[in-house]
Design brief:
The protein is an all-alpha fold. It has one helix and no strands.
Length: 70
């Protein structure tokens, strides 16, 4: 009887530990992805400040002007 109770308690403790480890790993992945999103946001802000993206249809457009249609 004691052995059964011990096995059950040990299983519960191992299960809780595994869940905690899983949440910790997911939290670390989330922090890494948030850092990457912050970097993308900073780069997009710099592009916006510099006047937008260049016209990809015109290879000579290096000024960062908005695309204009004629």
């Amino acid at each position: 009887m004691r052995l059964v109770v011990t096995v059950i308690l040990l299983s519960v403790i191992i299960g809780i530990s595994a869940k905690a480890a899983s949440l910790f790993i997911n939290d670390e992945k989330e922090k890494k992805l948030q850092g990457e999103l912050d970097m993308i946001n900073k780069r997009a802000s710099l592009m916006y400040i510099q006047g937008g993206a260049r016209d990809i249809d015109n290879p000579d457009d290096f000024s960062g002007r908005w695309k204009t249609s004629i």
